[in-house]
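for the recovery benchmark. tokens below, seq after
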């Protein structure tokens, strides 16, 4: 599971400035590009020079493996994404016409948006990105570019090709949504994702429900690594593996993993990396589980990585996983805090406000650490999570624990980039100066803490009752799971135990977190959603559900008050203790829903609280935000790890921090181009 950025643009405390890495010159610019609703940042890799040559080499190979699966994600997102990307790349690389015109600039913005989203649909809102340049201009772009570079079908004319691509990118009626939530339609058939082909929701559910044995306590993650297609009326899985679907890209991933494994830090790493490669060769989900079990038990290594088909947020049914990769090493200083949390995991589980029947009897191996990312790939690039908790299989988490990380250099980059922007979202939506100052003083401390609690404890807490189908909550499972982890974090963030453990300076800090969460859940996060649209994304639904539920259910005691000043709406927390009680109640209920597999109750919570935005409030929030002229979504450019040779001998790996978003994607398009475009 992933955590995305919780507060859009948190105020940065002075404490963080003091802990800036030494190698960071004051010249380093974090925010390097802004277009449409996006901003592009760079992230630093502090402590690189404290690593040994072997560790750097290991990170370099793992980084190459992380970049080799890029094409896979593009194809998973939509069957024509690679076709469109290769078309855009060829125009950007060879167009001989005038590049100073307004139309060409609009074309470049469109191309950058597509690169940012790994496809033609918005990475967050899921809807098709419609180019601003006129349709006739597209033909001109094609005519003045190198014809051989376009992925034409055999015998296809450039004109026919042009019309075909143009319809894909600019017809608002076709391939409307990547992942559709429209319940008036079949959500699989209405989605443009490429996890299924010609398969209805019912057919897919029947296909996978048949595989599940309710008595099996260690079920495989059925369907995780395949595309389900209907051929001659029969359903078959096309497995992602060497010799199967995406073979050419997976072969390269394995090639670099093999090189990496020769310079791994220890035998444990070698063992699970070998299992991962075996899994890529066979597609065998049992091997995938074996890999995860071995991987989750390695808490000693400095260097670590995620590489595989892991998160199922992109699948309307939450079964199939997108390809992703994050390469990283341990942030020693920050890890001390997360260790305190995981060492007390048992206490947290025992004292949670959840029915004892749904609690884990034994809390095992909850490991947590802060990490420094060195390369992002697949679904973690360019818009990465700031926290990761894996593996996802419930029974592995229960029997072997889970590994949980927060990515400190990315969180730091978000904060620094926000500082480079003159306007503040939190200020705009905060009712009083006093509340704003509180947020400024404690906001970044508590957001790191709640991210840790969410990842280290939240997702790992609780258990299913025996025989409960882990997929019982179906399309609502991701949102309810994120809500559960958020509530766990919120509940404990304001526990006196936090001060006792030295994780919070005072209980005042927890107030800052509650204020910020409510502001975000009831207002700020809506800036990311177009007027008239619903909340779709799992983390956002979770925040909306929690905040709205607490607001509605606390009305009697005026726990959260809606105030209007100068025509602007604010939500002010009046009673933080009562709010904590409400969080505890909702946590208990969502845990019950998960543990019992109560689909109907879960669906009702989502429908009642998580999806619909009050249209007037939505309009107001968007207008206030637009007046600030900031970008709601952030993503990154990867640093380059470059081998340094002297007299033909490798002596070091140095870091370069490129600042051109488009150039990095064009470079990747040349160097990591392994899959053919769908015809
Ligand atoms: Zn989560």
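predicted aa per position
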């Amino acid at each position: 599971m992933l955590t995305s950025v919780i507060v859009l643009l948190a105020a940065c405390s002075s404490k963080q400035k003091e802990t800036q890495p030494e190698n960071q010159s004051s010249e380093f610019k974090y925010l390097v590009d802004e277009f449409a609703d996006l901003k592009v940042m760079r992230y630093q890799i502090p402590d690189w020079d404290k690593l040994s040559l072997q560790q750097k080499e290991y990170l370099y190979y793992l980084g190459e493996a992380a970049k080799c699966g890029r094409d896979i994600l593009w194809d998973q997102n939509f069957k024509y994404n690679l076709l469109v990307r290769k078309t855009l790349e060829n125009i950007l690389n060879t167009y001989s016409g005038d590049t100073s015109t307004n139309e060409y600039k609009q074309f470049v913005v469109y191309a950058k948006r597509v690169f940012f989203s790994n496809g033609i649909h918005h990475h967050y809102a899921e809807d098709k990105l419609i180019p601003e340049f006129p349709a006739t201009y597209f033909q001109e772009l094609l005519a003045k570019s190198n014809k051989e570079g376009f992925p034409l079908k055999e015998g296809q004319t450039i004109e026919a090709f042009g019309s075909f691509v143009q319809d894909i990118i600019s017809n608002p009626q076709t391939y409307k949504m990547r992942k559709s939530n429209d319940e008036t339609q079949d959500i699989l058939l209405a989605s443009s994702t490429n996890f299924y082909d010609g398969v209805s929701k019912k057919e897919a559910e029947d296909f996978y429900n048949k595989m599940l044995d309710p008595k099996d306590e260690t079920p495989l993650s059925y369907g995780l690594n395949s595309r389900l297609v209907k051929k001659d009326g029969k359903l078959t899985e096309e497995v992602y593996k060497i010799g199967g679907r995406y073979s050419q890209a997976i072969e390269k991933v394995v090639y670099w993993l093999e090189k990496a494994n020769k310079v791994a830090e220890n035998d444990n790493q070698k063992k699970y990396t070998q299992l991962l490669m075996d899994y890529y060769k066979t597609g065998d989900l049992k091997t995938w589980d074996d890999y995860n079990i071995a991987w989750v038990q390695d808490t000693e290594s400095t260097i670590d990585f995620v590489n595989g088909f892991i998160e199922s947020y992109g699948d309307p049914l939450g079964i199939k996983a997108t390809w992703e990769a994050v390469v990283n090493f341990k942030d020693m200083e920050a890890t001390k805090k997360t260790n305190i949390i995981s060492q007390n995991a048992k206490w947290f589980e025992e004292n949670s406000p959840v029915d004892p029947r749904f609690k884990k009897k034994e809390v095992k191996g909850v490991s947590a650490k802060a990490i420094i990312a060195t390369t992002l790939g697949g679904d973690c690039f360019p818009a990465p999570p700031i926290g990761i908790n894996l593996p996802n299989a419930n029974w592995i988490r229960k029997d072997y624990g889970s590994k949980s990380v927060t990515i400190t250099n990315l969180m730091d980059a978000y904060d620094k980039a926000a500082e480079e922007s003159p306007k503040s979202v939190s200020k705009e939506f905060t009712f009083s100066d006093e509340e704003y100052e509180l947020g400024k003083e404690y906001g970044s401390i508590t957001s790191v803490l709640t991210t840790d609690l969410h990842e280290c404890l939240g997702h790992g807490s609780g258990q299913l009752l025996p025989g409960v189908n882990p997929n019982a909550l179906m399309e609502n499972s991701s949102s309810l799971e994120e809500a559960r982890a958020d509530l766990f974090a919120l509940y404990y963030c304001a526990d006196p135990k936090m001060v006792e453990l030295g994780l919070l300076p005072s209980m005042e800090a927890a107030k800052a977190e509650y204020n910020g969460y409510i502001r975000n859940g009831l207002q700020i996060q809506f800036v990311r959603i177009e007027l008239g649209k619903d909340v779709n994304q799992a983390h956002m639904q979770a925040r909306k559900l929690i905040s709205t539920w607490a607001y509605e259910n606390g009305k009697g005691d005026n726990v959260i008050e809606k105030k209007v000043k100068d025509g602007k709406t604010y939500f002010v927390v009046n009673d933080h203790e009562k709010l904590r009680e409400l969080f505890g109640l909702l946590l208990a209920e969502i845990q019950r829903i998960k543990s019992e597999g109560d689909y109907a109750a879960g669906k009702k919570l989502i429908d009642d609280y998580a999806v619909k935005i009050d249209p007037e409030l939505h309009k107001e929030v968007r207008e206030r935000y637009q007046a600030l002229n900031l970008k709601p979504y952030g993503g990154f450019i990867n640093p380059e790890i470059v081998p340094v040779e002297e007299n033909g001998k490798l002596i070091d790996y140095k870091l370069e921090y490129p600042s051109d978003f488009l150039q990095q994607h064009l470079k990747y398009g040349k160097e990591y181009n392994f899959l053919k475009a769908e015809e």
